[in-house]
Amino acid sequence: MSSLELWRERGAALGPRAAKRSRESLQRRTQRLRSRFFFIVQCALAAAFAWWAARVVLHHPTPFFAPVTAMICLGLTFGQRLRRVVEVTAGVAIGVFIGDVFVHFFGSGVWQIAVVVITAMSAAVLLGAGLLIVTQAGVQSVVVMTLLAQPGAAFSRWLDAVLGGAIALLAATIAPAAPLRRPRQQAAKVVTEIALILGETALALRDNNSELAGATLERARRSESALDELRSLSAEGIAVVRLSPFRRRHLPAVQAIADLLEPLDRAIRNVRVLVRRAAVAVWRTEEVPPAYIDLIEELGTVTQRISDELEARRMPEGARADLSRLGRASAQVAPHPTLSAEVIRAQVRSTVVDLLMLTGLTYAEARARVPVSVDALEDDFVESEH
Fold it and tell me: Where are the transmembrane segments (predicted)?
């Protein structure tokens, strides 16, 4: 094939790939907008209400700082919202107050801007403020001195800032139900991913399929991102129920999902080690006893059942019996096993313990259901992952 034909072939293939990437990018951006649309609408309504309240209640003709403070306070996340409301309101209030005082007595100019920024930020630091308050104090004092320099409006803009913060605090107590559902849905997704990885690993070992073993190993390495998303969603869900009095009753359910993070993290790590050793066994054509492969396959089936229970908003207590049975079966050591085979068996045992903890057992209770191996080999040899 000539170079020209090769470039033509590459160019022809580039179009579909580019179109696919564009569609995937659009889907991600659309999903991101969908997940943040509530925050956007909430900020818009809070800003509009803050403007209206400042105009009608305080009779301020141009209450710029009321809607601005409300929007900055609310932001686009639930995490640490109450703290953000307090800090931003304090920072804006300090900056606006000091800026107004300087405009009222000294007017606006070059030296006034320098002095007011130093004064506002220093005052925030002396009050023991965090970085957010100090920054907002400096920024808002500059806004007052430059864009809104009105000597006759002293103190009115400070009231606007406080009003905006108060409205943001009220709006922050209103939260949708989605952040309470998503952690459980994501937890089920993570467990499903573990189940699929185990199933593919068993198939790769049974068929001695090196290509599938490599692909499964890559999939196992990517599984950490799903767990990271679960951590983020869980933290957001807890923030919602702690902040909103209307969602406080959901705290036990949200906390129960948060408690799954530690055993899930360990399960993913153990499964990654298992998959990597299975891939090594396939590449080196090392024998893995059929009984060990059956353990992996059955563990994948039980893991999927756990995911189904989580998706149905139930604690997967029904999987304990099958996991306990697998734990007992994993104690049987095959005659003359290879190193890879024993690493795989050990990782199955460790994963069984992790999954038993997902059903609500403590570590000691879960460990008691995985008996010591009947062979003289050291129990639970685990290869560390780097």
Answer: 37-54, 60-78, 85-107, 113-137, 158-178
Q: Please check whether residues 200 and 335 belong to one and the same domain.
A: yes
Tokens of 377: 């080999």
296 part of a folded domain: yes
Same domain, 128 and 190: no
User: Helices in the chain by DSSP H: which ranges?
Assistant: 3-56, 65-74, 81-106, 110-126, 131-146, 156-172, 178-207, 210-222, 224-243, 251-258, 261-283, 290-311, 320-329, 339-358, 363-368
Q: Are 267 and 359 in contact (CB under 8 A)?
A: no
Verify that 144 and 199 share a domain, yes or no: no
Assigned domain for 30 exists: no
Please indicate, yes or no, if residue 13 is contained in any of the structural domains: no
CB 283 within 8 A of CB 210: yes
CA gap 28, 336 in Å, rounded: 50
Angle at 171 between CA 237 and CA 85, to 5 degrees: 80
Threshold 0.90, pTM exceeds:
no
CA dihedral 149, 154, 160, 163 (to 10 degrees): 160
pLDDT in tens, 89-106: 777 778 878 887 887 788
Tokens at 153, concatenated: 């409006």
Classify 183 in phi/psi space as left (phi over 0), alpha (psi -120 to 50) or beta: alpha
180 vs 175: CA distance, rounded Å:
10
End-to-end Cα distance, the chain: 43
Domain that holds residue 241: 178-368
**166 and 188 together in one domain:** no
Residues 158 and 201 in one domain: no
Q: What is the pLDDT of residues 74-89, one digit of tens each?
A: 775 665 666 777 777 7
